Amino acid sequence: MPTHTLPNPQAFPKDFVFGAATSAYQIEGAVHADGRGLSMWDSFAHHSGRIADGSTGDVACDHYHRMESDVALIQSLGHTAYRFSVAWPRVLPTGRGAVNTRGLDFYDRLVDQLLARGITPYATLYHWDLPLTLHEQGGWLHRDTCRAFADFAEVVARRLGDRVHSYATLNEPRCSATVGYLEGRHAPGLQDRGMALQAAHHLLLAHGLAVPALRAHTRSAQVGVVLDVKPYYAADSGADTAHTVQMADGVFNRWFLDPLFKGHYPQDVWVAEQGHQPLVQDGDLATICQPLDALGLNYYTRGHVVHDATLPFPHARELPVAGASYTTMGWEVFAEGLRQMLVRIHQEYAPQRLYVAENGAALDDSVVDGRVHDPLRVRYLQEHLQACAQALAQGVPLQAWLGWSLMDNYEWGKGYTQRFGLCHVDYATQTRTPKDSALWLRDFIAQHARAR
Ligand code: IFM
Question: Model pTM greater than 0.90?
Answer without folding.
Answer: yes
